[in-house]
Structures are given as C-alpha cells and as structure tokens.
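Its record is retained below.
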Amino acid sequence: MTATLCEYKPGLENIPAAKSSISHVDGQQGILEYRGINVQELAFKGSFLETAYLLIWDKLPTKEELEGFESDITYHRRIKYRIRDMMKCFPESGHPMDALQTSAAALGLFYSRRALDDPKYIRKAVVRLLAKIPTMVAAFHQMRRGNDPIQPNDELDYAANFLYMLTERKPHPLAARIFDVCLTLHAEHTINASTFSAMVTASTLTDPYAVVASAVGTLAGPLHGGANEEVLSMLEEIGSIDNVRSYAEHCITNKKKIMGFGHRVYKVKDPRATILQSLAVQLFDETGHDRYYELAIELEKVIEEKLGHKGIYPNVDFYSGLVYSKLGIPSDLFTPIFAIARVAGWLAHWKEQLAVNRIFRPTQVYTGVHNASYIPIEER
C-alpha cells in the first residue's frame, strides 16, 4: 500500500506532533492551563517549584513532597569547580544564552549515567537541572564582569536566591515574589519551538542534559525567547511618548514586526501578559514609574487601536522585559531567565516522551533535480 503525502505546511503549522496532558492553550479565549489548572491560580496561589512538580509529576505535591523537593534543589544548587573553571574561559563578550547552552551540555559529562527507566535517576536529573541552571546563569554574569561567582544562599527560596546571586544582596520580598510568579508564567506553553526541539532530542534516548542544552539553543533565537530583549531596545528607540504613534504607524506601513506583540496561538491578549502587567503595576507603584512603563502603556493603546481587529495584542515578552528591568536584571539575561523557568516544561515533556517514545522522523517534500550528471572538476 502506497503512503500518501500529507499537505506540506511551513513550520509544521497546526500539524499535531504528539499527544500531551501537560498544558493546554485556548488562543481564542486567552486561556492557559497547566495540567488542567489555570495559570493564574498557580501564579498567585502557588510557587514556581510547586508548579514545576505539578508539570513533571502530574500532580500537586503534598506539603511533605514539596518540602522534600525544595530541600533537594537547595542542596544541589552548587556547580562543580571544573564547570566554573570552564566558564571562566568563555569570552566576556559572549551571550549568556550561548554560555548556558554550553554549560548545560557540560553537566552531562559529570552525570553521564543514563538510566531512563529508573525513577530515581529521573528525579535526580530533574533536581540537578532545576537547581544548577540558575546558578550557572548567575555565575557567568559575575565572571564576565571579572568577579568570582556568588555562592547560593541556602536561607533563600528559589526565586530570591537567583536575585541574590546576581547582586549579593537579599532582594525585597515583593521583588522575590514577583520574580517567582514570572518563572511560573514562563514554565510551560505546549509544543513551541524549544519544547519540540527538546522532544526530538529526547526521542533519541540521549541524556536529559543534552535535551535541555538543545532546547536552550532553540530558545535563544529572536523569534522565540530572544524577543523579550528586543522589547526594551524598541522602547529605547521610540524614546518618548510623542514618538509612539508615529513609530507604530511606520512599522505597520512597512510591515515591520513590533516586538512583544502578536502570537502564533493567541488571538486575544496573552493571559500571561495580563498577569505580568498587573505585576508591573505593583512593582512600579512600589518603586516608582519610569519612562519605559509609560511608553509601554501608550504603545499598547496604539497597537490595540490599529491592530486589535487582527487579533494582535501584547504577548508574554512585552511586559516581562519591563518587570525584569525594574528588578535590576540586565537585558541580555532576560532570555536565560526564560530558560530557567522553561526547564520545568522541557523536563515534563522529556518525561512524557520517555513513556511513549518513538524517535521523530518526519518526511520532506523534495524540490531538487533528478538524474544530474557529475561534472569533472576541470570542466566546472
């Protein structure tokens, strides 16, 4: 029986690649659920590590399970000195995402045993990756400035500890709580580009460190995680409230992408953007407004007026950059922070892939010539 070729769609748009119970998006209603729970509930009632546990093990942890999970992650926050020494050799001008991808892959050299059918191995891999990825991001940030890495503070929770490792100052409780919510909002979002990359890599039955390194490399692109860096650059370019409308109209006329707006799935405002905007209001009310915030509010109004009828609204990147900037985080760390959060989702899909694994092997539509002749080099 001859197999029939399905319709070719660039980027595999809307072509199902897997079945999953991890997350659900309704782009028409603006709904995002993790394991059936609305992300808004998890953001405001839970914590990032509680959410990570839910995503990976398909249930909310009991108090004892969560305390044990948090304790294990706190214990494994530190990284091997050889990894630190390797990172010291990275060029200071290198992008933190490139440093993170290399460092994540290097973890596999130190924890090379692959026992993908062993629940204990899977738990240890999950704990190590969730624990060490933030430490590596903060360590590279310090080392590129000529400083020794700041050791993790075991007295601080997951979010607060990362902010501490960037500055060696304990963050304000509001800042730490807002950052934890940001991590929850970025933890998972169905089969996007980086998650698909993770699943393809996982399907070969390689180790989870290679899976995460693969996903980090995919997330680094400006069409995926890198967009949040571009939002602040765009606001810097706009400069003042008076320039907002002319900038937006110029982009629309010239079909230039307006960073932080539009989404492949959402045709209404991204629910994560709505939550992040509320966090930004809290943060700016507490610490003072700045011109970025005022520009963002005005730009959203203009874009909704001009493009709302086309389903183009702010996505998660639009307000995340504003929040991170107000927290004092350098813009080139925005995407690594996205990775810190999304490790939870990648690992959830890794674990789900292992349960029903079949190596990914899509087909193609060949567009080249046939029966071409080899031309001797002297005749070319």
